[in-house]
């Protein structure tokens, strides 16, 4: 059995979790897309085809691709998992006890394939054949969602992230994404690939309200050699960073966490939208955001298990010391200022490394891809005219589950 372990950002990628965009995207409209955290509505068929091209590019690099929809269907086949997931997602607090009870009954009778499609893709009141005396039901309009679609599940990177020998089940910042984590909690607990396997759950697997301790995987870079780089961003809080760090140290899986403070706006929603690791000594960065002015801290644990926090002069020195390299190569976004800003917005810096010096990125980012190529980084390009509208590139759309160390 291969091991659930992610030892770096750039070692050979062996297994990855993706989610092909399907029903959830059909529910995106100009009037609801912003609430569902999309800037635009996507052409659903085209997005699916682009995603298939991404999955096939990964397979061509000897990466095993797991698809979230399939894993969810196979997890729902375990009676205990189905019961837990319906209790959790269709809770009395969310719907009121009368409606929740009827809705759970209706969903329990569905076959697993259909149920997975509804849990991921949403359900409108007009599609619901049951009538209940519930006030919520009576007050809702036909096009309101009983179950909101989860279009952001496309970005499997954020909901859970594997860091060395364990996983963080991330408490997400935005209500539009919080239900996603429960799907991963169920999969990692009951799906045959994960059930009974030896891995640590660092954070986020309790039935708790995590309050302000938010963390999203797009901010977490497992740079290797026992170090983890985390961005404090629009979606990841200092409280989230410290909680995850404490558990990484307690389990002995990481020796240091480097935290950098990012501006809190959407164009750099996560660290990986402005910075990714492409080769052992090479990073791609968007210099408008990632520069020497960013506050940088190093978190470590002392001999008594107490967390130590020290402020560092800049992020580069911190990374060089963590990776034990004399000088990092930094490749900045390509083109002039206008082109660089456009390409960063279209995820030029958000590439997925499949092995040292080989990355997957959108073909539309021509200036940046050319720069990578000149620096000796091979770019395997994929189409992204539709997928990119969700504001996420190849790294955002992938959750590595098994990857070699450096």
From TrEMBL:
Pathway field: Amino-acid degradation; L-arginine degradation via ADI pathway; carbamoyl phosphate from L-arginine: step 1/2
GO terms in the biological process aspect are: L-arginine deiminase pathway
Which compartments does it reside in? Cytoplasm
Just give the chief location class.
cytoplasm
Give its E.C. classification number.
Answer: 3.5.3.6
Q: What class of enzyme is it?
A: hydrolase
| Residues at the active site | 396
Transport as a keyword?
no
| InterPro entries per record | Arg_deiminase (IPR003876)
* Keyword match Transport: no
GO CC terms, sorted: cytoplasm
**Keywords (A to Z) from UniProt:** Arginine metabolism, Cytoplasm, Hydrolase
Q: Which reaction does it catalyse?
A: L-arginine + H2O = L-citrulline + NH4(+)
One Pfam match, by short name?
Answer: ADI
Gene Ontology MF annotations = arginine deiminase activity
Family designation: Belongs to the arginine deiminase family.
The cross-references to NCBIfam families, in alphabetical order and at most eight, read:
arcA, PRK01388.1
**What is the designated name of this protein?**
Arginine deiminase
Q: Which gene encodes it?
A: arcA_1
């Amino acid at each position: 059995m291969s091991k659930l372990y992610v030892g770096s950002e750039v070692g050979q990628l062996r297994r990855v979790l993706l989610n092909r965009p399907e029903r959830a995207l059909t529910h995106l409209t100009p009037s609801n897309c912003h609430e569902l955290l999309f800037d635009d509505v996507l052409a659903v068929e085209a997005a699916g085809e682009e995603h298939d091209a991404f999955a096939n590019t990964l397979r061509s690099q000897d990466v095993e691709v797991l698809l979230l929809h399939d894993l969810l269907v196979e997890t729902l086949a375990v009676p205990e998992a189905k019961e837990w997931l319906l209790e959790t997602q269709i809770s009395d607090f969310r719907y009121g006890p009368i409606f929740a009870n009827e809705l759970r009954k209706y969903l329990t009778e569905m076959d697993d394939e259909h149920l997975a499609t509804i849990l991921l893709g949403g359900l409108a009141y007009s599609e619901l054949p049951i009538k209940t005396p519930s006030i919520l039901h009576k007050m809702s309009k036909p096009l309101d969602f009983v179950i909101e679609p989860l279009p952001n599940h496309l970005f499997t990177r954020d909901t859970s992230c594997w860091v060395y020998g364990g996983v963080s089940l991330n408490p997400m910042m935005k209500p539009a994404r919080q239900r996603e984590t429960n799907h991963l909690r169920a999969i990692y607990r009951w799906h045959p690939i994960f059930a009974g396997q030896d891995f640590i759950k660092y954070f986020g697997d309790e039935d708790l309200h995590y309050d302000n301790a938010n963390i999203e995987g797009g901010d977490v870079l497992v740079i290797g050699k026992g170090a983890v780089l985390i961005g404090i961003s629009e979606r990841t809080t200092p409280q989230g960073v410290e909680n995850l760090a404490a558990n990484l140290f307690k389990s002995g899986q990481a020796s240091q966490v480097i935290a950098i403070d990012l501006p809190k706006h959407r164009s750099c929603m996560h660290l990986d939208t402005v910075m990714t690791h492409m080769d052992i000594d090479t990073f791609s960065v968007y210099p408008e955001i990632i520069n020497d002015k960013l506050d940088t801290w190093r978190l470590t644990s002392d001999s008594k298990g107490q967390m130590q926090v020290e402020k560092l002069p800049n992020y580069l020195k911190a990374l060089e010391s963590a990776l034990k390299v004399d000088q990092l190569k930094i490749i900045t976004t390509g083109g002039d200022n206008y082109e660089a800003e456009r390409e960063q917005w279209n995820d030029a810096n958000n590439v997925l490394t499949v092995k040292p010096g080989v990355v997957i990125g959108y073909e539309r980012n021509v200036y940046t891809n050319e720069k990578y190529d000149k620096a000796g980084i091979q770019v395997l390009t994929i189409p992204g005219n539709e997928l990119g509208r969700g504001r996420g590139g190849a790294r955002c759309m992938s959750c590595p589950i098994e990857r070699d160390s450096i």
